[in-house]
């Protein structure tokens, strides 16, 4: 199992609107891609007018991620209206192998 992680930042007054947009676009696409086990969107108000967003998605393997993201697995995937919301974003994502549970 592999976890894919992305981060971005929006103005706090636009956070709820952007969260709805991400749920309708990226999160929906994650969840319908074969090999995706789940996806979550986390947010936190940084107290300075910005809200940080973090997406976590769980995948069977790199081929499943490739079906979602394309051949450049490290490149973040964006949707048409993201640019209008994001004040900063990571252009790459991180992948972590989930350690099996201890016996």
TrEMBL record:
This protein's record includes keyword Oxidoreductase: yes
Pfam families linked: ABM
Domain ABM: 1-69
Gene Ontology terms, MF aspect: monooxygenase activity
Keywords, ordered alphabetically: Monooxygenase, Oxidoreductase
The protein's Enzyme Commission number: 1.14.-.-
Highest taxon of the lineage: Bacteria
InterPro entries: ABM_dom, Dimeric_a/b-barrel
Name of the protein described by the UniProt record: Antibiotic biosynthesis monooxygenase family protein
Lineage of the species this protein comes from: Bacteria, Bacillati, Actinomycetota, Actinomycetes, Propionibacteriales
């Amino acid at each position: 199992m592999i976890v894919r992680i992305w981060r971005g930042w929006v103005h706090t007054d636009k956070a709820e609107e952007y969260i709805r947009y991400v749920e309708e676009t990226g999160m929906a696409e994650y969840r319908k891609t074969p090999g995706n086990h789940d996806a979550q969107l986390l947010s936190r108000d940084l107290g300075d007018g910005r809200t940080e967003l973090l997406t976590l998605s769980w995948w069977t393997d790199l081929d499943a991620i490739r079906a979602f993201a394309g051949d450049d697995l490290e490149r973040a995937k964006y949707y048409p209206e993201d640019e209008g919301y994001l004040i900063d974003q990571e252009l790459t994502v991180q992948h972590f192998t989930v350690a099996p549970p201890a016996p």
